[in-house]
Amino acid sequence: MPDSAAASRALLAGASGLVGSFLLERLLASDLYSHVDAWVRHELPREHPKLHVEVIDFERLAERRVAAEDVYCCLGTTIRQAGSKDAFRRVDFDYPLALARAAAHDGARRFFVVSALGADPRSALLYSRMKGEMEEAVRRAGVPKIYVFRPSLLDGPRREFRLGERLAQLAGNAVSPLLLGRLARYRPIHADAVAAAMLAAAERDLPAGTFECEQIRALAGG
Question: Which helix (H) or strand (E) element contains residue 71?
Fold first, then answer.
């Protein structure tokens, strides 16, 4: 574990999302951090002695100051939820990149970001291609240590009901026992397992890199 004085403050962007909501609770419970800043679009009904919540304009991320050693990015959406390809790109590419650049500018030493299984800047699939492009751009932003997490289909309680994702979750859970060996990475994974893996990487001060779904499960403890 890194020196507690060197990693006493964390910043979480996307604390109201599926992974972010679980990660927020884990950050608050961790002895690694004495302060946790949460940047959100809307008020967050959560109070804690460590927690400072700030409602911000994500379109102006480049103007923000990052007063944290560790930055966690759990921002993400879908084209349907965003409403257009351009809006989807803003949330899944522009915002994480702006956050990474702000973190680098203000001296953050570690950046943890949620991507997706199959992320590839050369993919024919828009979602996978966008995630891959985001990964490449974030790695060039200048933060010394970049951690990329590529979960498969996320399972867990969502604030909004998404019929397509719910049906995919049900189908994925049904066939999950049949996905063995290298196919195991395609099993749905609970959002809290992703959150646990992100914090475990920080607490163990693991080497920076990309964590595929099976590595996420191992870090989360199962």
Answer: strand 70-73
Q: How many domains does the chain have?
A: 1
Taking only the tens place, the pLDDT of each residue in 100-128 is 999 999 999 999 999 999 999 999 999 99
Query: Cα torsion for 191, 196, 198, 204, to the nearest 10°?
Result: -170
- Domain around 91: 9-159+190-220
Q: Output helix, strand, coil percentages for the chain, rounded to the nearest 5.
A: 45, 15, 40
Per-residue pLDDT reduced to its tens digit, 54-109: 999 999 998 999 999 999 999 998 888 888 999 999 999 999 999 999 999 999 99
Chain centroid to CA 8: 19
- CATH code for the domain of 90: 3.40.50.720
Tokens 């026992």 -> residue: 177
Instruction: With CA atoms as reference, report the closest residue to 11 among 60, 62, 69, 64.
Output: 69
